[in-house]
Amino acid sequence: MSAVLVVEGLTVDYVTGAEPVRACDDVSFELRRGEILGVAGESGSGKSTLITALTRLQRPPAVTTAGRIEFHGTDLVALGPDDLRKLRWTSLAIVLQSAMDALNPVMRVGAQFVDVLRAHDKTLSRKDAWTRAAELLGMVGISADRVRSYPHELSGGMRQRASIALALACGPELVVMDEPTTAVDVVMQRQILAQVLRLRRELGFAVVFVTHDLSLLLELADRIAIMYGGRIVEIGTAESLYGKPRHPYTRGLRDSFPPLRSPLRKLNGIPGSPPDLRNPPPGCPFHPRCADRFDGCDEQRPELLTIEDHAVACRLYPSGEDQS
Amino acid sequence: MRLAFLARRLGFYLAAAAAAIGLNFLLPRLMPGDPSSAIVEELERVSGQQVPAETLMSIRAIFGNPHANLAQQFADYLRQLSHGDLGVSVVNFPVPVADLVWQALPWTLLLVGTTTITAFAIGTLLGVVAGWKAGSRFDAILTPFTTFLSSVPYFWVALLALWIFGFVLGWTPLSGGYDADLPQGFSFAYAVSVLHHGVLPAATIVFSAFGGWLLGMRNMTVTTVREDYVLLAQAKGLSPKRVMFRYAARNAMLPSFTGFAMALGGVVGGALLTEIVFSYPGIGYLLYESLQKRDYPMMQGVFLLITLAVLLANLVADLAYVLLDPRIRANR
């Protein structure tokens, strides 16, 4: 299958003070048509920076200093604002973390569909746009009469589902989701995930789904990328990542969440705290917290190397060979 | 539910208006002196002899008897008020206060009303642009300059403008609201003279007032621009103009709007300093004169008018806010 999105060497710096802070460092991955890529990491791992960089929504002081984001062969980094605007929502949509904050409080929910529908389809009449908005809400199980509600009149779960419906309004090929289930309860979380999977099956869009919750990604994602200190440290299919995590950080992350479908076991957290990106540790950024570190981990930074269906950046796997 | 809300608000403002009328009656009576005594004293001072009893009677009949029962005075006051009778001016005896107020009101509404709206429109628009691109050259020059303007005392600006444009250059008249040689009415020449007299006072008000709106709006826009819904609007690929006005400015304007409604209420009070500096025939000048000459009925009438106008503006602001912010509707 052809790649919808090819990200190569994406590097984002926050230019404040004398030294720029590198929040995304040489990030590369591919996304195929209709694929769900999960991106997991702790706070400060660079996942939110990655989202605003991918969608070209970053604001100063964040600056993309290197790399390419190729969307069907078009480099989004090099694209001018007008061309970018035409691409937005019709090809590339986003669902933000908190739907309460993401919807304009003084506009009816339907009006927020209508303006984007009509911005990208000049031939669409106002009346047809409102009908279309009601249909889109129906797609996520919100009754059509809610189209005239204001955001504060909907429940938290409804708002979040409305945001997802909004993202799909112009039939994008890629939807970037920034922890869209963090603000809702577990029951609603499952309902939303099921809906995302169903809609993906029906409409065939690809998803980059960013979260700190690895167990959730195991249910949802086809492939998962683990971010640490602004870099991807491991990327692979959901099964191989869960069944056979290579990177000590991935293992730690997996073991710190209760499994969704198997009996409870003892949970282990990862000792220490995420690296300070203003002053990153030399060598592998994870080495100060790593139980498996050995001589040289504090000097050489490991590159992302492929092992079978899986890529990992760790010196335990020096030449892309599995260690065991 | 919306009707209940309306009734509750109306009830509140009616109670406030009643209290204002009561205070307006009571306050001058708590002050030392009263119009009747002031006139009697003046007469005695000028003529050098005691005022005859019948003159005293007629003065008290017109201006009120300070020794009458307070409840009786209040009843008389309310009865007069219900006929739109605000009493008789002492200084411009025997012109009724109501006539003088009605004469001055259009001038004030014309001058202060239009300038308040203009200053709000200019300030708000520039504030949105400055806040939208906070830190841009436009913002970096305009915002400190406006802060400077806002801190210059108004009377000084007005006097300086009058001196330069009225006296040195002679472009504008030095005082008044119209050319006294022309007959008042809807003639072209008269309208031109009104504009000619009004342009300088109007310009000084706008010049001094737009800065406050600009700074408030700029700061609110800076915060609003960081909201997720503005980010999402950009992600939707809407035109920058639509994102700026429909998403950012629309929300940032809500606090400014309250201030604007209050300012509109204050319009009726006139721009006291402006009308004094330019001798403009509005309510502010009327109040200034009545204060100087201790024209109690006049003061009372003007105060009542100002109070009621502020209350009315507040009521309108309350109701309009409900239309502007749907979240308020839900809580009521």
From TrEMBL, chain A:
Molecular function per GO: ATP binding; ATP hydrolysis activity
Keywords: ATP-binding, Nucleotide-binding, Transport
Keyword Transport: yes
GO biological process, one term: peptide transport
Superkingdom of source: Bacteria
UniProt cross-references to Gene3D superfamilies, sorted A to Z: P-loop containing nucleotide triphosphate hydrolases (3.40.50.300)
Family annotation (PANTHER family): MALTOSE ABC TRANSPORTER, ATP-BINDING PROTEIN, OLIGOPEPTIDE/DIPEPTIDE ABC TRANSPORTER, ATPASE SUBUNIT
Family: Belongs to the ABC transporter superfamily.
Protein name: Peptide/nickel transport system ATP-binding protein
Provenance organism: Kribbella kalugense
Automatic annotation (TrEMBL), chain B:
GO BP, one annotated term: transmembrane transport
Positions of the ABC transmembrane type-1 domain: 105-317
Transmembrane segments: 12-31, 107-132, 153-174, 194-216, 252-278, 298-324
Keyword NAD assigned: no
Location relative to the cell: Cell membrane; Membrane
Domain of life of the native organism: Bacteria
Keyword Transmembrane: yes
Alphabetical UniProt keywords: Membrane, Transmembrane, Transmembrane helix, Transport
Gene Ontology, cellular component aspect: plasma membrane
Family, per entry: Belongs to the binding-protein-dependent transport system permease family.
Cited PANTHER family: OLIGOPEPTIDE TRANSPORT SYSTEM PERMEASE PROTEIN
UniProt-recorded name of the protein: Peptide/nickel transport system permease protein
Species for this entry: Kribbella kalugense
